[in-house]
Automatic annotation (TrEMBL):
This is Lipid II isoglutaminyl synthase (glutamine-hydrolyzing) subunit GatD. Belongs to the CobB/CobQ family. GatD subfamily. One of its GO terms (biological process) is regulation of cell shape. The active site is at C95, H194. GO terms for molecular function: carbon-nitrogen ligase activity on lipid II; glutaminase activity. Forms a heterodimer with MurT. The lineage of its organism: Bacteria, Bacillati, Bacillota, Bacilli, Lactobacillales. It comes from Companilactobacillus heilongjiangensis.
Length: 224
């Protein structure tokens, strides 16, 4: 029987901008190549969720309004997501989903949306520019080309803990000052890249391999 890899897509119905759900489709395709079926669960408002039931967590981008709705539901899942991340399990968070792992996001409307405060960074708004356009940056897996559209500017509070995902060649990434894109912590990648980002095959294959490894570990743990 074909083994099933389980993916949790956090608030899929509310957080999916500029092709982000394509990331999950690309991963499903690559996992199929490796002989696995995938089950993708939309974890939405009010639903029960145990991150350890899954081999991969995905979180897409969102408009400010949808983010403010998600923020009313989110804190219930803080502990399970934090434990999952600390256990070195794989996760990809895009734009609004990335912002939610940090302390807070100040919107252009003057609202402060509380994040999960799992990782030491914060996101602010500054009048005068929304960061929109094509991006290109260097990563461990080669040059990534994508698209960004955000008003939040993300700044790391503890650079000894967080590493950038990439070094900018074109576009803004985290903010207009640091010339860096996204964040890495353990097996988590946060990024402002839509498009979807995983059309960049090297990154997609690297993440797919991590998901398979996480799946094998989860299966061994379950079988015992
Ligand atoms: N609403 C957030 C911002 O504008 C995130 C945008 C997004 O996820 N595309 O910064």
């Amino acid at each position: 029987m074909t083994e099933v890899i389980k993916i949790a897509y956090l608030y899929e119905d509310l957080m999916n901008t500029y092709g982000d759900s394509g990331d999950v489709k690309i991963l499903s395709f690559l996992l199929k190549e490796q002989g696995y079926d995938t089950q993708v669960d939309n974890i939405s408002l009010g639903m029960e969720f145990n991150a350890f039931d899954y081999d991969f967590l995905f979180w897409g981008g969102g408009q400010d309004f949808e983010q403010s709705v998600v923020a009313t539901d989110l804190q219930r899942h803080r502990q399970t997501i934090q434990n999952y991340i600390e256990a070195d399990k794989p996760m990809l968070c895009i734009c609004g989903g990335y912002q939610f792992l940090g302390k807070y996001y100040e919107t252009s409307g003057g609202q402060t949306i509380q994040g999960l405060d799992i990782l030491p960074f914060h996101t602010v708004y500054k009048a005068d520019s929304r960061m929109i356009g094509d991006t290109e940056y260097k990563t461990e897996w080669g040059t990534v080309r994508a698209f960004e559209n955000h008003s939040g500017r993300t700044y790391f509070d503890d650079k000894s803990v967080l590493k950038p995902f990439g070094e900018m060649i074109e576009g803004y990434g985290n903010n207009p000052d640091d010339k860096q894109e996204g964040m890495r912590y353990k097996n988590v990648i946060g990024s402002y890249s839509h498009g979807p980002i995983l059309k960049n095959e090297n990154v997609a294959r690297a993440i797919a391999d991590r998901i398979v490894a996480a799946h094998k570990l989860r299966m061994t743990a379950t079988v015992k």
